[in-house]
Specification:
There is one protein chain. This protein is mainly alpha-helical. The protein folds into 2 domains: about 40 residues, no CATH class; about 80 residues, no CATH class. The protein contains 6 helices and no strands. About 10% of the residues are buried.
Length: about 140
Amino acid sequence: MKKGRLERFLESDVDNILYWVSIFVVVLTAIIYVAQIWFVNYTGRYDLLECRLKTMTGINCPGCGGTRALKSLFKGDIFSSLYYNAFATYGAIIYILFFVTQTLERITKGKIKGIKFKMVYLWIAIGVLVIQYLLKFIIPGYKI
């Protein structure tokens, strides 16, 4: 049976590709974040930092609270992090585990094995995103 593109991609060195792409994405995100903060402070347009969906519709987007979630996570307050945005918390933890273990695998030349990409991580992320987003509507007083 002929394999599809996704199966062939997952059989390739997907962990190596994801490792280098993740470095690029983190560096690019940091550059954009610093540029955005500089621009907002330079122009005084603090409204640019607000969520456009929430500003226009009054409805929280799935990403609302993500920055506060990551700040709380890096301070060690995992419960606040999960409250603000469970998806961002899950994504950050999985990313850190993947990146650190993959780096250790490269440094030790394979003596320490890094975690490998599995589709289940993606399905869990989608589940967390959907559940978290629905809870924002169901739980009265859920403010972020």
